[in-house]
Each structure stands twice: as C-alpha cells, then as structure tokens.
Amino acid sequence: MSTSSNLIEPTTKRAIFGAAGLAFCGVLVETSMNVTFPTLMTQFQTSLNAVQWVTTAYLLAVAATMVIAAFTQNRFHWRTIVNVGGIGFVIGGLLCATAPSLWVLLTGRIIQAIGTGFALPLVFAQIMSQIPFKEQGKFTGTAGMLIALAPSLGPTYGGLVTQLLSWRLIFWITLPFGIIAWLITVKNIRQTTQPVAKPFPWGQFILIVAALGLMTWGVNAAGTQGVTSFNCWLPVLLAVLALIGFITRAQKSQHPLINIAIFHNSAFNKALAIYFLIQFIQIGLTFLLPNFTQLALDKDAMVSGLMLLAGSLTSAVLSPLTGKFMDRVGIVKPLRLGSAFLLLATLLFALLAKQLSIPIIIGLFILYQIGFSFMFNNTLAYGLQQLPRPQLGDGNATFNTLQQYSGSLGTAIMAALLATGTTLLPHESTITQTKLGTQLALWLCLIVIVLVAIIAWFVKPTVTDKSSL
C-alpha cells in the first residue's frame, strides 16, 4: 500500500485536498447557520419556517449545481470549474456577511452554494480517476472526512461565533481559508482527458431542478399547512411528474445530463440509497438537536453547538481509518458494523426523546457518528467502484447531488415535524410543543435507519473485496 501511495504525484494530492478544503469551507457554513435561527428570527422578525430556508435553499442550490457536475467536468477544463467555485464562494460569502435583510442573506447563500456545488464533485472525480484502486478507500475516507466533518462541526463553530461575536463572522472567518484552498487547487489540479464540446441539455436540467425544488416546497408546506393541504400535495405531485419527464428525456437523449444506465447496477443503487438516507438523518440531526436545545432546554447557541463537537471529532478520527478498513476487508463488514451503531443510536434517541439532556445528546450523537464513519464515505467509494470508467462522472454527480439534497430534505422535514408540535398542541408552551415535535422527528430517524440496515444487509461482497476471495 505504501508503494502505490508513493507513486501518486504530490500535485495530485495537493489538488485533491485543496478542493476538499474549499468544499469543507462551503459545507461548514451550510450547517453553521442552523444554531443561528433563533437569532435570525429575532433580527429579521420572521418565523422558523422562513429562516430555515437559509439552510434549505443553500442545500437545494448545491444539489441543483451538482446535477450538472458530469456535464461540466467533461465540457470544461477543471481549472475553470474550480475558479467558478472559488468566485462563487467569495462573492456569496461577502453578501451573507453584509446582508441587511433575510432576502439578501438568502441570495448570498444561493451564490455561495453554487460555488460549493462546482468544487465538491471535483474532489471525488480526482480520486476515482487519478488514485490507484487499492488506495481509493483511504483517499475517499480522508478527503471525505473533511467534507463529512463539516456538517457536524458547523453547529459548534456557528454557536461559538454567534454567542461570542456575531453570526456575520461565520462568513468573514471562513473566507480567507476558502480563498487559500481555492488557490492551492487552481495551481495543482490537472485532468487526464480533454474537454469535449457538446450542447447543454436545458430541458433535462429544468425538469430535474423543478423536481428538486417542488418536492422541497411541498415538504415545507406540510409543516405549516398539513399534508392534506393544496400547497403540499400539488408541489409533490408536480415534482413526481417532473422527475418522470427528466428520466424519459434523459433516456432518449444523445447528450443526457446524467446517464440513466448507472441505475441498472443494483450494487450502485444500494450504495446510493444508504448514502442518501444516512446523510438525510445526519443533516436532520444537526438541525434538530441544536434547535431543541435552545427552544426546549433554554440553552444558548454556544452550548447547543458545542454539544455536537465530540461527535464531530469522533467522525474526523475514524473516517480515514474506516476507509483503510474497507480497502483491507471489503464493504460488507463496515456496513454491518456501521448499521449496528446507527440502529443503537437512533433507537436510544427515540426511546429517550422525552428525557433528552445535554449529556445524553452528546453520548448518542457520538454513537451515531461512529456508525456514520463506517458507512458514509465507504458507500461512496464502493458505489463508484461498481461503475465502468465512462460512467464515473455520472455516478459521482448523482452521489454528490443526493448528498446535498438529502440534507435539504432532512432540514425541511425536521422543521416540519417541529412545527407539527405547535399544530397538535396549539395551547401548550413552546417547550412542550418543541419536545413533541422532536419526539416525532426522532422516531422518523429510527424508521429510516432500520431501512438503511435492511439495505446494508443485502449488500454482497464483490470480486474486488478481499473478504470474498
């Protein structure tokens, strides 16, 4: 293993981790804002459902940008893509840091999200095309650790900055680090293939973005108006129709935005489903737990952010190690170990929902992060390894799009369930309403993780798994 590592050029390593650093900064501010919602509600005099778009719109914009990752990586020089990502991160960050209103803040968040959406897929595109097969798990685990660490570290960072300084410093502090990572990547990045000119499939792009946006809109409406409301079921119905339209057009197109053939691979589909669902819960918890702590336990932003730090550090330490573990033994053991930890964590969260305290949340979030570390980056590496090289770009774009969209849905659904507490108990205190909404959300988490465990159990070793030889 050390021999193959020595054959990897230093410029390749710098480009990979430079892009990972830029993506980290983008994803860090993604969830850093979760703990600022009570502050933003007061400053901008608006509701939680309106303020949560600060995160939901960001994730939605990242997902919409990542949809075109396969196209942009084939059509443009990677250095150009990195420059677009870096410029978007800087301009968006400046708008957010100086925003006089919620709408300006949302605009800045969307611009910064587009920058992140261009940068993040390049991390794994480089790994899968320029790193030897036997090293891919380690590199995916290490680079992915930075990106996976950011969502869970975000509330800690956001809480400290908001409580001690100002929420605007969340953006000012990350800007110089993002710029340094951008410049390192631009200087070192290279690509093994030349760009190929081809028309952009606007029809497919509009349909898939409409599907993503309408589904999120419908989910948000469920929290404020109920699942039977016109504003809930109509957007969801239109989202399904748009998705069907996208699939139909992509299958018939000579230049599909995403090659639908990747979904003919059952092993890829299982990995993708696991990746989507555990990220859905991960981002959902980083929204739910800090808001529960502030609204139900009456803690400040700093405490609600710091309580997730131990879990974040656990993920940071374990992700590279679990990547090496997969390289050595294959995918089956990491998935089953990870599923066991996730089931235990979410079961205890659900059972103890009415007795949650800071120590209990810290302990259970650590358990969740242990399981998450065994599964998240490893399912990405394993899923992409199941595809032939011409389909890697499409697979990478799909994984990264669903990673961000799962977070968007996770935030929207957790916000909707929190709002359900108010709907069901309109005359009770905010604390009682928040506890009920949190309890409903945590039982949903358990149901989703049970589904994850079932899928993981049916993942079979492949000929590339040493455990199957």
Automatic annotation (TrEMBL):
Pfam families: MFS_1 (PF07690). This is DHA2 family efflux MFS transporter permease subunit. Keywords: Cell membrane, Membrane, Transmembrane, Transmembrane helix, Transport. The lineage of its organism: Bacteria, Bacillati, Bacillota, Bacilli, Lactobacillales. Residues 1-464 form the Major facilitator superfamily (MFS) profile domain. It comes from Lactiplantibacillus brownii. It is a multi-pass membrane protein. It is found in: Cell membrane. Belongs to the major facilitator superfamily. EmrB family. The chain crosses the membrane at residues 15-33, 53-72, 84-104, 110-127, 139-158, 164-184, 205-227, 233-250, 271-289, 301-323, 335-352, 358-384, 405-425, 440-459. It comes from the Bacteria.
